[in-house]
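in:
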């Protein structure tokens, strides 16, 4: 048992041991299992890491590949940002200033302003970049989106869009062409509501838009902003308050609300209060923008698929750019949002990979699109000449509003004509496969199809020519005849300027002649005496000579040929000294006078250039006509030109003496010479120039055809007749109805006037629906209703009236006519026919002469002849207006009604009386019917003289001639139709003889027409772009102002003894300015105090005080302007409109308007006016000093009575310098008071010359105690003097005097009365005894001195003596624009003549106190 127990115990121990061993094995097994498990885990972990690492490697490779390009871009971007951040201060400053100030300015001025700002920032060391404003404030994608919304693709429009999108004030856009409106419609899409500014619902529309948060555009804003909009214009206050008060009603403000204002005015002027409430942005169309529009329009019509493909490429490019930008932003956003290891985010990597692949595909497409776009652009550029020509023509016609307020043309109408022209020509030049050939162009010129290129160029040329012709025809029909040549000339110039064939300098010189900016080398006033010898230069040192050589050489006028006037010679010197093409001109004129003399007498100098060029190049001698003759017969005394030699004397190009080759001049440079030398041929030269540039058909006026105008326009556009006085288009409109087989009741004619508005509106509404015509006559009389008319025209554009409806309007030119009405109307200019032939034809076909009256047998046999004479008389007095002041002092508007009533009176008198009552006819026609319109007595005299030529017993005799030839002779008793046929055979040229004029009058007429053409062209060129070589406009004006300040006195001084209530400083002349004694040899009148003591206020002193007052007012204004304008140019003062006008006038060498208001009337240019002013001042100073009772220089001389006063000659013979320097030698025994007057008065130097004549009468009346009412002047023309008694011109030059100022000193001073000099005959000349006919080319000739002798006895005049009126200026008519109210007329003189007075009356002979030269 024990053994068993022991055995059991041993067994248990063995079991325990085994169990222990088993536990050890199991523990070891567990350890091994654990190690195994750990090993497997390590293996799995390593496998997972291997897989993860492989994935990361793959993803890393994807990221490296995907972001490799981005790394470079990001690096560049980081570098750019690092560079940009320090520049933000300057860029912010510049862009903020641009948003605030840029809006109203044009692109060139904005660039100048930006450049100035940048320069200022650099000076103040403010860092800034060279980015443009649009680059700073917008992105390329944003700009492209604007382009797709309708914004024009030019930098100016892009900049405007940037300003509009970044301003914090509501924008007011200047949008006459509707470009801004078009873009806003695309920008806002359906969220924009357009409301006319003159709408009665304006407040309701604003309230609704503010509440709903929509956008609203008020268009057609006038030159002011209605106060109703003021609350809504304060944008920041509305946003802060959340509400706005409109019409006493508070409205909740929605922040999505947008307000836009637009005006159709091209140059509006808003008050400062309005300007600070809005941001004004100039959306006026630019040349490049319009050029792109027209190019797209042409290509769309010629190659529609090409333009569609271009638009599609641009659209896709924009979409791709937007998508690319979105992908780039997505990449950055994804990378920035990762929170774990970027290699473990498979979705992120896949997204980045897809973005990169898409971006690469987009980049490829963009590059392909660029290549395709370049090919398309190559094809489009072929049509660029058509678009360029169209843009030039539009901008030329848009400037025509400067000529007449009715010449306003809308871009929409222009586009319509442009489109019609392109469509009418078609595109038949290409075959079916030739389009592909164009796009296959690989920029290798060797592979081009030359035949295809030729066909394309031929078609493009046809497009350009047809576009030019059609648009020109349309515009010309809208212009008065006097503006046809202006428009066509301007068109030619702009075409050549675009190709740089005419420089801005040449164009400005042509417009303004001797303008100050073109005379840097000339003395401002030139020379005083025409025949002054050039000053000999003294010997100088080499240094001095070198210094002088660097300065512009002063042009001398000493070598002036005798056949040129001073003004012509100055113009030639200006061309020679300022333009390389004319260097050597004056020398050539001196060396080769034959050529230039032939040019001076040619009837067509422009053609003479061409004919001479042809002869020189072909070396063939041609015989010339009378008009192409040279000057071999020159009178040495008068410089008159003969007509005997032919052009064989003209120099050839190979002439050894010819150093200046005029053959190298361009066609425009020839006109520049003609403008200087032959002002009377400017018109014909312009026509030759137009023919050379565009063709002969552009010089003819197309016939107005209402039928074509009617058919080519739709019912939405009114047809506006631009009237002239006395013209009525009703008959033409009624004739059009008959031609269209319409009933008379189809046309409703209404006269616009007070109270007619509601009736007109009712008839218009009815007619628009029924398809009838409405003719509103004389719209200028209904100014209060014209805004309603504007609404009606606006509604016609939006609605669709009956296609048969037409609105016809008629109006005289009136600024009150709304601009929108004028722009959207088809304009037809209506005016009186031009020429005798046309006026006669009009009289017989217009219905003025009734058939029954004309064929009345009871009127007598002479009735038809008298009717013809009356119609011819009517034509003559109408056409006589073209001669200006030679024809009529006042251009009267005679009408057809005058002729019609006169014919009725003539018929009545001839049927009632057996004998013709000539006196009654002449009285009724000359004084009542036609004379009732005449307000000037001298014109009344002219009218009566002309009427006597046509209404006298001789005029009804067979074969009576009105001229030396027979064209106008009425030979028989003709019917109306026969008379019309006879009139058709008359010449188109109107001989001056028919008007009673001299041949010189025709030259004067052409000179006036030429000057008028240049004035019109100047008004079209509103902004001068020309600057001298190294002198800008501001410098030129500043130098001119300094010259005035230095050389023009601030006032005329009166001594205290002559002062009135006005204070004047005693400012005696310097010794150097004193007149030498020879100038006043017998140059003043001594009045012995014991015989006639001068009163303290003699009549002559009253004249001086009055004149000094006027002169000082003018001088004060001049110097005040000089001071303020000088400060403005230096930036100290603000430039006002008046100063801006003065600035422009100075550059154009014109007299500023506010100077002109205070000035004596003058037709001179500014430089010559200032020269004339200084001469007047010198004359007045001499007179003042001579007339002073007590003066430190002149007045009281202590002279020995026995030696000096015994004979009047003594003081006259004492040299002036001796009196000044040795006055102490004349010790007094008696003190005498002397009143000295100029020996001869320059009457043209006075503001009020009538005052001098009245003072002379008063002095004579006081001297002899005669009532002044009993005195009148008797006039004696003094004899001419020459030879030894001529005044020393060198002394005269030093004193600043000319013969026009000091007269003829050799003539003895009369005891009574006064001598007057400085007068000119206009239309005749003085031969020493009588007035005789003018010499050819000498319209104005000087008169000798005239003795005005007061007399109590009324003089007896011969029948041949002519009473000649005296006028201040060549203008003759009207009242002077200055403080006095005196008329241009001064007095009248009776001059002897061998001709009857009527001869000189019809000649228009008059005396002028000054000329325009």
């Amino acid at each position: 048992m024990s053994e068993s127990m022991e055995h059991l115990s041993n067994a248990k121990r063995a079991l325990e041991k085994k169990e222990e061993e088993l536990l050890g094995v199991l523990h070891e097994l567990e350890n091994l299992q654990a190690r195994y498990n750990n090993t497997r885990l390590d293996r799995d972990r390593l496998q997972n890491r291997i897989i993860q690492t492989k994935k990361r490697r793959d993803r890393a490779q994807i990221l490296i590949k995907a972001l490799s390009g981005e790394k470079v871009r990001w690096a560049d971007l980081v570098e750019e940002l690092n560079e940009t951040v320090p520049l933000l201060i300057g860029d912010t400053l510049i862009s903020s200033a641009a948003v605030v100030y840029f809006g109203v300015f044009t692109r060139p001025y904005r660039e100048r302003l930006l450049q100035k700002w940048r320069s200022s920032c650099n000076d103040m060391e403010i860092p800034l970049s060279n980015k443009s404003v649009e680059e700073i404030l917008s992105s390329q994608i944003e700009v492209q989106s604007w382009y797709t919304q309708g914004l024009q693709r030019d930098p100016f429009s892009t900049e405007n869009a940037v300003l509009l999108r970044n301003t914090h004030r509501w924008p007011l856009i200047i949008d006459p062409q509707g470009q801004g409106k078009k873009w806003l419609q695309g920008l806002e899409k359906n969220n924009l509501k357009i409301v006319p500014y003159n709408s009665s619902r304006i407040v309701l529309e604003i309230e609704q838009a503010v509440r709903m948060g929509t956008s609203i555009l008020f268009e057609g804003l006038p030159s002011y902003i209605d106060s109703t909009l003021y609350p809504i214009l304060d944008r920041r206050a509305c946003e802060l308050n959340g509400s706005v008060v409109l019409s006493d009603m508070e409205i909740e403000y929605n922040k999505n609300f947008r307000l836009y204002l637009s005006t159709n005015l091209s140059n509006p002027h808003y008050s400062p209060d309005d300007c600070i409430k809005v941001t004004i942005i100039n959306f006026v169309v630019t040349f490049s923008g319009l050029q792109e529009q027209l190019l797209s329009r042409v290509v769309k019509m010629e190659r529609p698929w090409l333009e569609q493909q271009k638009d599609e490429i641009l659209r896709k490019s924009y979409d791709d750019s937007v998508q690319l930008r979105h992908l780039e932003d997505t990449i950055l956003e994804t990378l920035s949002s990762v929170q774990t290891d970027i290699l473990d985010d498979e979705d992120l990597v896949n997204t980045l990979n897809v973005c990169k692949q898409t971006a690469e595909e987009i980049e490829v497409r963009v590059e392909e699109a660029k290549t395709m776009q370049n090919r398309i652009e190559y094809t489009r550029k072929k049509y660029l000449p058509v678009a360029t020509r169209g843009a030039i023509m539009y901008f030329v016609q848009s400037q025509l509003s400067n000529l007449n307020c009715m010449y306003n043309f809308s871009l929409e109408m222009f586009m319509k004509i442009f489109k019609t022209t392109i469509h009418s020509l078609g595109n038949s030049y290409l075959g079916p496969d030739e389009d592909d050939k164009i796009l296959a162009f690989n920029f290798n010129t060797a592979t081009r199809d030359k035949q295809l290129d030729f066909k394309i160029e031929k078609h493009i040329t046809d497009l350009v020519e047809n576009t030019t012709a059609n648009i020109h025809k349309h515009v010309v029909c809208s212009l008065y005849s006097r503006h046809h040549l202006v428009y066509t000339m301007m068109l030619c110039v702009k075409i050549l300027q675009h190709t740089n064939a005419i420089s801005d300098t040449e164009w400005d010189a042509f417009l303004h002649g001797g303008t100050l900016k073109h005379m840097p080398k000339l003395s401002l006033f030139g020379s005083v005496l025409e025949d002054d010898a050039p000053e000999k230069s003294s010997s100088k040192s080499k240094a001095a000579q070198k210094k002088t050589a660097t300065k512009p050489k002063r042009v001398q006028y000493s070598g002036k040929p005798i056949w040129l006037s001073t003004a012509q010679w100055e113009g030639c010197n200006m061309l020679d000294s300022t333009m390389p093409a004319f260097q050597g001109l004056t020398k050539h004129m001196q060396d080769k006078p034959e050529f230039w003399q032939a040019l001076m007498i040619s009837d067509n100098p422009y053609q003479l250039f061409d004919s001479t060029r042809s002869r020189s190049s072909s070396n063939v001698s041609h015989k010339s006509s009378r008009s192409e003759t040279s000057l071999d017969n020159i009178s040495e005394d008068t410089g008159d030109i003969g007509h005997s030699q032919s052009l064989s004397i003209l120099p050839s190009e190979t002439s050894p003496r010819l150093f200046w080759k005029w053959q190298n001049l361009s066609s425009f440079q020839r006109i520049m010479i003609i403008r200087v030398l032959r002002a009377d041929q400017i018109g014909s030269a312009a026509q030759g120039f137009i023919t050379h540039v565009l063709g002969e058909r552009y010089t003819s006026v197309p016939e107005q055809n209402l039928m074509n105008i009617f058919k080519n326009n739709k019912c939405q556009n009114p047809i506006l007749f631009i009237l002239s006085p006395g013209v009525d288009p009703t008959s033409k409109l009624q004739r059009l109805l008959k031609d269209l087989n319409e009933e008379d009741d189809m046309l409703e004619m209404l006269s616009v006037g007070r109270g007619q508005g509601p009736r007109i509106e009712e008839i218009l509404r009815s007619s628009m629906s029924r398809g009838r015509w409405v003719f509103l006559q004389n719209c200028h009389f209904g100014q209060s209703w014209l805004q309603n008319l504007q609404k009606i025209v606006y509604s016609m554009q939006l609605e669709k009236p009956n296609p048969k409806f037409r609105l016809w309007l008629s109006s005289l030119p009136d600024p009150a006519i709304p601009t929108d009405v004028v722009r959207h109307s088809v304009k037809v200019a209506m005016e009186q026919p031009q020429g005798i032939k046309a006026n006669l034809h009009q009289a017989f076909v217009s219905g003025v002469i009734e058939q029954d009256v004309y064929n009345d047998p009871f009127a007598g046999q002479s009735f038809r002849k008298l009717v013809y004479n009356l119609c011819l008389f009517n034509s003559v007095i109408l056409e006589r207006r073209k001669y200006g002041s030679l024809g009529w002092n006042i251009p009267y508007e005679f009408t057809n009604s005058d002729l019609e009533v006169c014919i009725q009176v003539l018929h009545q008198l001839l049927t009632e009386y057996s004998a013709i009552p000539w006196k009654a006819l002449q009285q009724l026609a000359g004084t009542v019917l036609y004379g009732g319109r005449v307000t000037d007595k001298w014109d009344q005299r002219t009218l009566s003289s002309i009427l006597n030529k046509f209404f006298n017993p001789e005029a009804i005799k067979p074969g009576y001639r009105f001229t030396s030839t027979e064209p106008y002779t009425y030979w028989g008793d003709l019917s109306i139709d026969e008379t019309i046929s006879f009139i058709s055979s008359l010449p188109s040229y109107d001989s001056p003889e028919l008007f009673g004029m001299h041949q010189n009058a025709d030259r004067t007429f052409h000179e006036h027409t030429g000057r008028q053409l240049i004035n019109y062209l100047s008004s079209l060129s509103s902004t001068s772009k020309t600057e001298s070589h190294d002198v800008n406009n501001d410098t030129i004006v500043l130098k001119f102002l300094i010259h005035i300040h230095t050389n023009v006195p601030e006032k005329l001084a009166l001594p205290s003894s002559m002062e009135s209530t006005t204070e004047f400083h005693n400012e005696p002349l310097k010794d150097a300015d004193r007149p030498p004694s020879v100038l006043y040899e017998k140059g003043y009148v001594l009045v012995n105090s014991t015989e006639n003591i001068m009163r303290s206020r003699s009549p002559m002193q009253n004249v001086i005080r009055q004149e000094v007052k006027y002169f000082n007012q003018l001088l004060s204004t001049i110097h005040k302007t000089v001071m303020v304008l000088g400060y403005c140019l230096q930036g100290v003062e603000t430039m006002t409109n008046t100063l801006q006008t003065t600035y422009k006038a100075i550059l154009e060498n014109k007299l500023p308007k506010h100077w002109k208001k205070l000035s004596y009337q003058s037709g001179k240019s500014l430089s010559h006016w200032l020269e004339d002013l200084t001469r007047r001042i010198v004359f007045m100073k001499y007179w003042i000093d001579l007339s002073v009772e007590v003066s430190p220089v002149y007045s009281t001389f202590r002279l020995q009575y026995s030696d000096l006063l015994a004979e009047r000659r003594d003081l006259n013979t004492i040299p002036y310098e001796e009196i000044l320097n040795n006055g102490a030698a004349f010790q007094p025994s008696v003190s005498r008071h002397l009143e000295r007057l100029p020996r001869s008065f320059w009457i043209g130097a006075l503001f009020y010359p009538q005052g001098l004549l009245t003072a002379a009468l008063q002095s004579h009346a006081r001297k002899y105690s005669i009532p002044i009412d009993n005195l009148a002047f008797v006039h004696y023309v003094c004899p001419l003097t020459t030879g030894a008694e001529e005044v020393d011109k060198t002394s005269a030059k030093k004193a600043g005097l000319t013969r026009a100022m000091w007269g003829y000193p050799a003539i003895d001073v009369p005891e009574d009365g006064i001598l007057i000099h400085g007068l000119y005959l206009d239309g005749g000349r003085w031969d020493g005894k009588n007035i005789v006919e003018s010499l050819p080319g000498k319209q104005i000739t000087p008169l000798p001195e005239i003795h005005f002798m007061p007399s109590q006895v009324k003089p007896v005049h011969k029948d041949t003596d002519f009473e000649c009126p005296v006028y201040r200026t060549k203008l003759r008519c009207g009242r002077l624009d200055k403080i006095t109210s005196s008329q241009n007329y001064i007095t009248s003189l009776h001059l002897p003549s061998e001709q009857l007075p009527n001869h000189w009356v019809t000649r228009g002979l008059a005396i002028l106190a000054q000329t325009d030269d």
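note: The chain has 52 helices and 23 strands.
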